[in-house]
Amino acid sequence: MLRTRVITAFALLFVLLGGLFYLPSLFWGCLTLGVIAIGSWEWGALARFPRPARWAYLMLTILWGTAFFVLNIRVEQIYLLAVVFWLLVAIPWFSWGWQVRNPVGLAATGWMVLFPTWFALMDLHAMRPALLLGLIAVVSVADIGAYFAGRAFGKHKLAPSVSPGKTWEGVAGGLLAVACYGALWKTFVATVGVPFPGFVLLLAMAALSVGGDLFESWLKRQAGLKDSGNMLPGHGGVLDRIDGMTPALPLAAAYYIYGFPGF
């Protein structure tokens, strides 16, 4: 199992780095739209749509995405709306154990999770691929730090009814890991032309990524699923890999569009 997980992780890293640095914006947009489309298929399972509805949701996602892409439609306010959604809807959703059954609401929620993430992947890539890589790494660093800190020191459960394995000590370890990562970025990476975005943004991304993970965990628990899918051997589904990015990357995009003059 560990071997399979490691092989898949290296394959994903290869695709990510190749796409980031060697694909032009057009093909990067197509690649990431494919990821979002797979995520929409998996979202249909989390929302417990019947199979015909899952196919319809997938096709609508592809059609909407293609229209946005071909017509070059950008609604910058979508990032602020996404941040508001995560803070005022998604986090209370799993914190208070909401049981949502309305298919229209669940479909709209899926698009609110997926489309801002896709727009952020394209807009941040257009700014600078290395910047996007550094921001994606924030989520991975937070996840790794939380895992090891939780295993070593975890005693106080973060959300036992949603994800019993997560602890407050793990969250603290993840934030500490991101702070160290930020120090390395500021000291070394910024000197080669990738400006340091600031500790506030990195720590806020790390904190929100926990919310993305817990939100998906709650939906999987409701749907009676262990993973969102089985496309990635050893890792589950696409949503299992990008759940932390879905709130973090729109936040980063909002920061750069509204709060980082001159970039």
Automatic annotation (TrEMBL):
Pathway: Lipid metabolism; Phospholipid metabolism; CDP-diacylglycerol biosynthesis; CDP-diacylglycerol from sn-glycerol 3-phosphate: step 3/3. One of its GO terms (molecular function) is phosphatidate cytidylyltransferase activity. InterPro entries: PC_trans. It comes from the Bacteria. The chain crosses the membrane at residues 12-41, 53-71, 78-98, 104-121, 130-150, 194-215. Pfam families: CTP_transf_1. Its main location: membrane. It is an enzyme of class 2 (transferase). GO terms for biological process: CDP-diacylglycerol biosynthetic process. The keyword Metal-binding does not apply. It is a multi-pass membrane protein. Keywords: Cell membrane, Lipid biosynthesis, Lipid metabolism, Membrane, Nucleotidyltransferase, Phospholipid biosynthesis, Phospholipid metabolism, Transferase, Transmembrane, Transmembrane helix. Its EC number is 2.7.7.41. Coiled coil: none annotated. It catalyses: a 1,2-diacyl-sn-glycero-3-phosphate + CTP + H(+) = a CDP-1,2-diacyl-sn-glycerol + diphosphate. GO terms for cellular component: plasma membrane. It is found in: Cell membrane. The keyword NADP does not apply. Belongs to the CDS family. This is Phosphatidate cytidylyltransferase. It comes from Sulfurimicrobium lacus. The lineage of its organism: Bacteria, Pseudomonadati, Pseudomonadota, Betaproteobacteria, Nitrosomonadales.
